[in-house]
């Protein structure tokens, strides 16, 4: 499904769309990646689960809603981590990455996506461009050197 044409600022830059992104980390330090469902831009690419904020929502509210809608889980505390603006041909997005260490419920792939728990280097491919910086941040935090993912 094509995304809506983004609004433009007076400066000519496109207004970013805010996106809440969940970096779920389990007790063993593994993080969850999911594949983008068929019908969306970058279908089949691996990313951290999340989605766009709806009108009036905070990042945390959007994240709770999206992860429940997409994965069937109810998340616990949300720890804001980093914010990254990425320019795609289809949109300019402001990604609000949040760490989540606790959740309830069994994972259900409600959009027929796939899920994979990963450590570095990740063993899924291709990785969404907007996901690559997160892998680098993990590498910095964890003292990991070398490629974080397979080049596409
Ligand atoms: N969920 C998620 N989106 C990301 C990541 N990195 C990244 O660049 N994006 C971009 O952020 C945007 C998120 O939009 P989406 O299509 O997943 O959001 P959504 O579930 O609300 O979609 P919808 O409009 O079909 O309801 C996309 O342009 C996607 O390419 C990431 O790690 N996770």
TrEMBL record:
Cofactors (names): Mg(2+)
Enzyme class: hydrolase
Catalytic activity: 8-oxo-GTP + H2O = 8-oxo-GMP + diphosphate + H(+); 8-oxo-dGTP + H2O = 8-oxo-dGMP + diphosphate + H(+)
Protein EC: 3.6.1.55
UniProt entry tagged with the keyword Magnesium: yes
Nudix hydrolase domain ranges (all copies): 16-140
Keywords: DNA damage, DNA repair, DNA replication, Hydrolase, Magnesium, Metal-binding, Mutator protein
One annotated GO molecular function: 8-oxo-7,8-dihydrodeoxyguanosine triphosphate pyrophosphatase activity
GO annotation (BP), single: DNA repair
Entry's family note: Belongs to the Nudix hydrolase family.
Listed name of the protein: 8-oxo-dGTP diphosphatase
UniProt source species: Aquincola agrisoli
């Amino acid at each position: 499904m094509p995304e809506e044409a983004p609004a433009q600022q007076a400066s000519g830059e496109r207004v970013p769309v805010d996106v809440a992104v969940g970096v779920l980390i389990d007790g063993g330090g593994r993080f969850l990646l999911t594949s983008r469902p068929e019908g969306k831009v970058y279908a089949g690419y691996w990313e951290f689960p999340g989605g766009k904020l709806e009108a009036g929502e905070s990042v945390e509210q959007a994240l709770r809603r999206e992860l429940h809608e997409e994965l069937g889980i109810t998340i616990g505390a949300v720890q804001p981590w980093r914010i990254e603006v990425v320019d795609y041909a289809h949109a300019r997005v402001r990604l609000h990455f949040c760490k989540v260490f606790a959740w309830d419920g069994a994972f259900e792939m409600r959009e027929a996506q796939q899920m994979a728990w990963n450590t570095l280097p990740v063993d899924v491919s291709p990785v969404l461009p907007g996901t690559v910086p997160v892998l680098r941040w993990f590498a910095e935090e964890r003292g990991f050197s070398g490629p974080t993912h397979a080049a596409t």
